[in-house]
């Protein structure tokens, strides 16, 4: 499952620029790797997006603090929070793709 989430996270970074289809494809890849049915695939796809959103929030906050002190840190946090909302949307699309990938994998095996 950890490998599926890691690969899904990398695929989410690569494919998230493609509207709607990209995150679903990334989740699908994670779901295929996770195997074990649609529930496990959905979890892998969703976790890939969640991890990405947390990484973005932390990096935006730290970068804001480095560049602009306390006010920059606050602005970085607010910007990061907006990116987290977008990432959660991508995570939900990843969940759909992961469920489809897990369903396909469970039918094949």
Task: Write structural notes for this entry.
This protein is mainly α and 109 residues long. It has one domain (23-108). Helix content is 91%, strand content 0%. The chain has helices at 2-15, 21-34, 38-108.
Q: Which labels suit this protein?
A:
single chain; 109 residues; mainly alpha; elongated
Helices and strands, with pairings:
Layout: H1 2-15, H2 21-34, H3 38-108
What is the quaternary state of this protein? single chain
What distance separates the N and C termini? 17 Å
Number of distinct beta strands: 0
- DSSP helix fraction: over 70%
How many distinct folded domains?
1
* Unreliable residue stretches: none
> Beta-strand level of the residues, as a percent range?
under 5%
* Overall pLDDT level: 81
Question: What is the overall silhouette?
Answer: elongated
Computed structural class = mainly alpha
Helix-strand topology string: HHH
Largest sheet: none
Number of helices: 3
Rg calc? 15 Å
Could you provide a short overview of the structure?
This protein is mainly alpha-helical and 109 residues long.
